[in-house]
Write the structure tokens for this entry.
Amino acid sequence: MAIAIIATGGLGRMSTAADDLLPSGDPGGEVQVSVDDDPGLGDPNAPLTMIEFSDYECPFCKSFFEETLPQIKSAYIDTGKLRFVYRDLPLPFHEPAASKEALAANCARDQGGDEKYFLYHDEIFARTASNAEGMKPADYASAATKIGLDASAFNSCLSTEKFKDEVAADLAAVEKLTQDYPAVFQQGIGTPTFIVGKSDPSGTFTGQVISGAQPFESFQQVIDALLAD
Amino acid sequence: MRFWPTKLLAALKLLLRSPFYLILALVLAFILFVIYFVVNDLALYRSAAAINGSLPFLWRIFTNHIRTVWTAVGGLHPILIGFISALGGINLSLIALRTKRTGVFLGRPGILSFFGSLAGAFAASCSACSTALISLLGVTGGLAILPFGGLEISLLALVILLISFYYIAKSLFEFGLTG
């Protein structure tokens, strides 16, 4: 028994050691973040805003897209309570597919605004196998055609990487968040990461961080509390 | 080595005949399973605890975590973690049983069990990309950068724990605890 306790105590120490490697702080702490000029879904005047930092090649982002986002959409976005903003965080180990898909979605937005952006966003998540496998080369144009974009203009936009700076700006915003809030983002910012707070006309708001692909209930509790506040 | 399957079976039978140590094995396996997932996604659990610190809610987060890993990266991951936890629990319980009945403390099986269990901790997946425990070792990208997404660590942990189990079974036999 003593050995079992020692051994499990070892695991306990491992957990503590992991904590020791990290600065202390409030993981659910609030952070200030900007929606920048990124695409949004829902009423621009909604009382709440939720930003998702996401990677099109992240399987957990795909899981959020498939399971949780539809519930959030019907309960809060479609009812005008929440505006959902998508910001890019293509992770290095999902490249080059992650950035290419982020660029492609921005090219869709270039032609048809936020509505086309999110239609293309849906196409990417529906078509990609995730984990850096990406969409098939032919899928980029076929998805664009399917949602009614001009394929030629879309291909030109994608091949010239017209929105490279836009994606880079999102990555810079993430970098700044980790520097400004080291206690909140102790392990860095993974994908998906969400920040939910009360909307501000300036586009910069203070919100609560929800880390990882959590179930709908997590979002529900945070959003309902903010709405009731 | 000639009769090792018999020794392993005998060790398992000994555990099944000892209710206290059987329950201990089950409890330890469960604890290991929970630890493996939680330490790999501290950000998730800290974030969830900040939303609602109640145990039923955190349990819901935990079950959703496993389900998300299952659907996002495949069922093999959680299944292997389950095997590692079970084997870790069995080994630790058998070591405890041996210590109680013989007074022999730790030794090679205990050390191997510890390292096997430790390796298992690095093999579990998180529900966000790039925040796994392995990232703390400076491996940017966590398990996703490994060719088999961390299954290689799971297999390493299983092999270490199986070797440990063999030594435990052998020592139980040598001490006359199994027939």
Remarks:
- Chain B touches chain A through 55 residues (CB under 8 Å).
- The first helix of chain B runs from residue 4 to 16.
- DSSP finds seven helices and no strands in chain B.
